[in-house]
Amino acid sequence: MQEPEEKKIALELLETEQTYVNRLHLLDQVFYKELMKEAKTGKTVPEEVVKMIFSNISSIYQFHAEFFLPELQKRMEDWNRNPRIGDVIQKLAPFLKMYGEYVKNFDKAVELITAWSEKSPPFQELIADIQKRKVCANLTLQHHMLEPVQRIPRYELLLKDYVRKLPPQSPDRGDAEKALEMIFMVAKHSNAAIAEMERLQNLWVVYQRLGLEDDIVDPSNELIKEGPIQKISTRNNSTSEKYLFLFNNMLLYCVPKVIQVGAEFQVHLRMDVEGMKVRELKDTEFPHTFLVSGKQRTLELQARSGEEMDAWIK
């Protein structure tokens, strides 16, 4: 008898889960535990750093080792009598939201490993020592740490495949489809966590370029557009190079610094976006010119091209 396709996929899910739990055991019970033990002696690296590297790996390990894997095992042993996994995954899928925190922290964790390996030779030696063990299969700590980041997309692929192969009248169809939808939402949740992390990182870089002015630094700001612009001076009919940062709530009118120590720009003027008016000017002498008028003042600006002007106005 040929095994039904959906059972093969369910078995693959179980086998990969078993391997995955071993990997989590290595991360939590070997790397994390041993690095933490060393950190407590005060010779390698601060305890806080070890905690930051491993984020919430202990909760993830516990969840998979004590709930997810045993439930799947039980179900597969009972497959001939009750051929379904959709309900189990549905019940446990909400817990996978824990991954958002781990995924969001991943880049930071890798940076910390690199930085502290340079700073603390004993820390580097301990990691190298663990990596030499058979259980590590010649792979680095960073490589093992990537596994949880890739696990949820893997569930999504396996479940998609499972749903596709289910016979139309299968008792598991409804549950499996619902489970797939839930896994999809969890994947979206961790992708959103990554996107938010990138947004904050980019925002921070912008604040550094602006010299970190207290009243400008706000995590809720959204950078919409930035770029060089010419300021037209009607008094002496000339233009000078300026730089604009447009946020959702303010326009920063800046001057590029000649000597760049620290900040790249000096903020000359802040204009509230609320109540601001923007319109194109038909100026024969200065093409691609537009007027920005706000509560604080009015600026006559010139873009490098018609497209660029339209983009700013928009």
UniProtKB/TrEMBL annotation:
Residues 5-193 form the DH domain. The keyword Cell membrane does not apply. One of its GO terms (biological process) is cytoskeleton organization. It is found in: Cytoplasm, Cytoskeleton. Keywords: Cytoplasm, Cytoskeleton, Metal-binding, Phosphoprotein, Repeat, Zinc, Zinc-finger. Residues 222-314 form the PH domain. One of its GO terms (molecular function) is zinc ion binding. The keyword Metal-binding applies. Its main location: cytoplasm. CDD domains: RhoGEF. GO terms for cellular component: cytoplasm; cytoskeleton. It comes from the Eukaryota. This is FGD2 protein. It comes from Rhipidura dahli. The gene is Fgd2_0.
